Amino acid sequence: MADTMKVLLIVLLGLSCLALTCLGQQLLVKHAPSYVTFHKQTPDATVSSSDLHNIIAGPLGLSNRPHSAIQSKSVLKRPKANVLVTVVTHKDQKELPLDSMAKFPLDWDMPFVDVEALMNSAQSKFLEKDPLMLDLVSNNQFFDVKTTSDLFQSLPGSFAAAKDRLLDPDSFLFGSAHKSGSLNASLTSDGGLLAEIQVMRDVVDKLSKSAEKLATGAPDLLSFTLTGLKGIGEAYGADSAQTKDAQKLVAKHLDEITDDLKNIYKGNVMVEILTAPSIEQPYVRKTRSLKAANGTDYSKLNLALEWDQDFPAAFNISLFLVLTLVITVMFIAYGMWNMNPNLESILYRVPQDENKKLN
């Protein structure tokens, strides 16, 4: 009997740990246009993290394998932008108090989101256009900013620069409606989260002030990875007052940023919040040969584009020009082969006339 109770206790503990883990990793859709539909959600239905880029790419028209979780009812419409915010939380923290249109539990089979594959798909499909793309990851007191637009080149690259931005009069800390509660910006853990929020606010402000750069005809892709909430949970504990204030602050700013994005893109935008227990960078396998050059900057080379809109016209012109020349040469060769080489022929007429003139 005692052994049976021990086994039941172990099973219950395992199930509770699994439930807490599943609770900490989920995908929430904060906003989506009316023509975007969501699959009927069941408690046991999960979405793999390795399929997240296909789920996001489906409504944007960037994937040939759309996922059933999120689909578009219209083939003529697509969102003007997609914004993904990944919030890394402590393993013992409670669920963020966020409202959402849809919620999908995650199977965290891959500890990162393949944002680079999504951006490569957008660049390959909209080669002639210049969509705004930004992948901002905060990790180890630094901001890893990956972008192709000059609009985001002025973003800070370190937490120290972002903390200095908090001292400016136009930072969110000086607003009457934004209170940090028990958080102290001078501390490492607290200041890291506040700096992440400030950088996100600056990105949204840049978008609102540069409306002319949004009309590119291609969907904009923005991705943010915030790790400050996990740092506060590790520093103070999951049930501390600082952690609760940090969760409220993050939820409040995510709601405000969603409203700002809806106004900027006139409601035609998708905003997703991904809560994850951990995040890692994808491993890239690099190969090198003995004759490989070091430090080659391919952007400075005069390389031709992989595809150009004039390729079909150039191919047709070259094809029919070659066919015309081949047929012309065949007719000329056939006529010369069957020409009668007598004295009345054109081959002998000109030389005989010249001989008569000379005589």
TrEMBL record:
Topology in the lipid bilayer: Single-pass type I membrane protein
GO function terms (MF aspect): signaling receptor activity
Alphabetical list of InterPro entries matching this protein: Renin_r_C, Renin_rcpt, RENR_N
Signal peptide positions (record): 1-24
Record carries keyword Transmembrane helix: yes
Transmembrane portions of the chain: 313-337
Predominant location category: membrane
Record-given protein name: Renin receptor
Taxonomic lineage from the root: Eukaryota, Metazoa, Spiralia, Lophotrochozoa, Mollusca
Annotated ranges, domain Renin receptor N-terminal: 24-276
Places the protein is found: Cell membrane; Endoplasmic reticulum membrane; Vesicle
This protein's UniProt keywords: Cell membrane, Cleavage on pair of basic residues, Endoplasmic reticulum, Membrane, Receptor, Signal, Transmembrane, Transmembrane helix
GO BP term, example: positive regulation of Wnt signaling pathway
Organism annotation: Elysia crispata (lettuce slug)
GO cellular component: bounding membrane of organelle; endoplasmic reticulum membrane; external side of plasma membrane; vesicle
Superkingdom to which the source organism belongs: Eukaryota
